[in-house]
Design brief:
There is one protein chain. The chain is an alpha/beta fold and 390 residues long. It has two domains: 5-170, P-loop containing nucleotide triphosphate hydrolases (Rossmann fold, 3-Layer(aba) Sandwich); 214-379, no CATH class. 56% of the residues lie in helices and 6% in strands. It has 15 helices and five strands. Strands 2-3-4-1-5 form a five-stranded parallel sheet, with helices on both faces. Strand 2 (84-87), helix 4 and strand 3 (117-121) form a beta-alpha-beta unit. Helix 4 packs parallel to helix 5 (129-140) and helix 12 runs parallel beside helix 15. Residues 383-390 have low confidence and may be disordered. The structure holds zinc ion. Residues 55, 57, 66-67, 69-70, 72-73 line the site of zinc ion (ZN). Residues 55, 57, 66-67, 69-70, 72-73 line the site of zinc ion.
Length: 390
């Protein structure tokens, strides 16, 4: 069987069937709300659907999907199609009203390459009342050919005025063993690596696949290096902890530099399609994307720290079979043997708090300092009080 864009909607057969049949029966509505927990593949599904909507052969492709072969498909697949737009909140924890105005203004313009324009709006649950009010009229009656795909964790978390204007498409929670199997199937990685990647990517299957497939295995190496350091954290002095935090921030920046290069290449490729003012807007958006990416890598780094502590806790609780970072089993065992479960629990809470502060513009160095000191305190078994949190 040939692969098509919808085959990439992993673990969600009902969603796949629903989207296929909407296309083949040409029942496309102008606003969808995909709801489901993090890691349920909503983003992947949104881009696959967008590809089918902008492909000139559309529903006539294999089994009611995009043709997969035309220039539009190729651009959509690489997420550089000029008529497929992706938005994520750029405020600390909400959409900025300017962002919504930008979307509303853009919607009024004609499509550049396709017959349709698709707006994928991530975390619609982070659209507050002001943002929603600026958006509702457009959401309700967009120009012909515009399709909104909103993504949200649950239906209840999105404002009712938005929900009532959308076709709801529910995504199921994918159980961890099934998620690992999907990642293995798609990457050829063994079950252990698949689980570690999912853990590092806070449960997202699609990002876990990207994590494993990444050119040069940069993030796999980053993970190993970080865990190697964490295995020694209990013997580090203050200076070594501070140095480690600096190094982690540097490495996140290096990973972001790779993204920068690919964004610049994408813009170059589409440059002839855009007017100068549009290019300026894209450049500004790319810049914001990069700061979002930087945060994503820092969160990934913290996800690894948390998974390390949970492993130590599993050993301390007498359930070593739950250890995820199996390649560091010996070190986890050593730390777990003398760790205090209640203290690890408190440290995990403190780490979550420090992590939340990242989204409020606390410097990454400060945040990682707090987190790494927590790790050392909890693992060195000396019973010192933990460092104050932020
Ligand atoms: Zn196509």
């Amino acid at each position: 069987m040939t692969q098509d864009a919808f085959d990439g909607i992993l673990g969600q057969p009902q969603v796949r069937d629903y989207l296929r049949s909407s296309l083949t029966s040409e029942r496309i509505t102008h606003a969808y709300l995909f709801t489901g927990p993090a890691g349920s593949n909503k983003t992947q599904a949104a881009f696959a659907f967008a590809q089918a909507l902008v492909c000139p052969k559309g529903a006539k492709g294999p089994r009611g999907s995009a043709c997969g072969a035309c220039d539009g498909c190729s651009r959509a697949k690489r997420r550089v199609h000029p008529d497929v737009h992706f938005y994520a909140p750029e405020g600390a924890s909400a959409y900025l009203i300017e962002q919504i105005r930008e979307i509303v203004a853009d919607v009024a313009l004609a499509p550049i390459q396709a017959k349709r324009k698709i707006y994928i709006i991530d975390r619609a649950d982070l659209m507050n009342v002001n943002a929603a009010n600026a958006f509702l009229k457009t959401l309700e009656e967009p120009p012909e050919g515009v399709v909104f795909i909103l993504l949200g964790r649950t239906r209840e978390s999105v404002l009712p005025t938005i929900v009532s204007r959308c076709q709801i498409v529910p995504f199921r929670h994918i159980p961890p063993t099934e998620a690992a199997a999907i990642v293995s199937q798609n990457t050829g990685a063994d079950a252990a690596l698949a689980r570690q990647a999912i853990e590092a990517c806070s449960g997202s299957i699609t990002r876990a696949i990207g994590f494993i497939r990444e050119k040069g295995n940069a993030r796999i190496h980053f993970r190993q290096e970080l865990l190697y350091q964490l295995a020694r954290a209990d013997r580090m002095d203050d200076w070594q902890i501070l140095q480690l935090a600096r190094r982690l921030v540097e490495q996140s920046k290096a990973l972001v530099d790779q993204v920068r290069t690919s964004l610049e290449e994408e813009l170059e490729e589409n440059r002839d399609l855009f007017e100068r003012s549009a290019i300026r807007r894209i450049e500004a958006r790319n810049k914001r994307q990069l700061s979002i990416k930087t945060l994503e890598y820092l969160h990934q780094c913290i996800a690894l720290v948390k998974s390390w502590l949970r492993d130590v806790m599993a050993v301390a609780a007498g359930t070593p079979e739950l250890v995820i970072n199996e390649d560091f089993a010996e070190e986890v065992q050593r730390m777990g043997a003398r760790a205090d479960i209640a203290r690890i629990g408190r440290a995990l809470v403190a780490i979550e708090e420090a992590e939340d502060a990242l989204d409020y513009n606390v410097s990454p160095e400060t945040c990682l300092d707090v987190i790494l000191f927590q790790v050392r305190e909890v693992l060195d078994g000396s019973g010192h009080p933990c460092e104050p949190s932020l």
